Amino acid sequence: MPNTIEINEHCLSITRNLSNALQYLFERNERRLWIDAICINQQNDVERGEQVGLMGRIYSWAKKVVVWLGHHADSSELAMDFLSLLASGPGDTDRLEWLLNLCEPEYSHHWKAVYTLLHRNWWKRAWVIQEAVLA
To answer: Of the candidates 82, 69, 85, 71, which has an alpha carbon nearest to the alpha carbon of residue 117?
Structure first.
């Protein structure tokens, strides 16, 4: 049975994944969201084509872009913390040695967590890299 939401007195079928994301996001705070699967008529090729042309502006104008990777898994927090560590590492001169240190066996569970995170369904969508870069 498909999930549905009501928008302006109209019922709209949505995926289970989108339903999970909306439930999670609205449990924590009421917010205004622009969701392509809802805001673009996916059945209308002309509208969809026009909106795809606007995606760059839509994402670059956003104050914040939220990506729903799915429900929290055991290693999600470890993966996100490790990715933050990788992004904030030392400058160019010390970086190679620092990265080589992170290849030691004691960090294998960190790398496995990142691997698991990067194999979630969101990454299989065609436009995710473009969306992330534009955001």
So the answer is: 69
**Mean per-residue pLDDT for 99-106?**
92
E strand segments, the chain: 3-7, 10-14
Residues β-bridged to residue 13? 4
The whole-angstrom separation of Cα 132 and Cα 135 is: 5
DSSP class of residue 7 equals: E
| E strand spans, 1-118 | 3-7, 10-14
* pTM for the whole structure: 0.67
**pLDDT score recorded for residue 102:** 92
Which residue type is seen at 134?
Answer: L
Is residue 55 within 8 Å of 131, Cβ to Cβ? yes
Residue 95 phi/psi, 5-degree rounding, is -65, -45
Q: Which residues contact 127 (CB under 8 A, 6 or more apart)?
A: 55
Is residue 117 within 8 A of residue 123, CB to CB? The reply is: no
Q: Looking at the predicted structure, is the pLDDT value of residue 29 above 80?
A: no
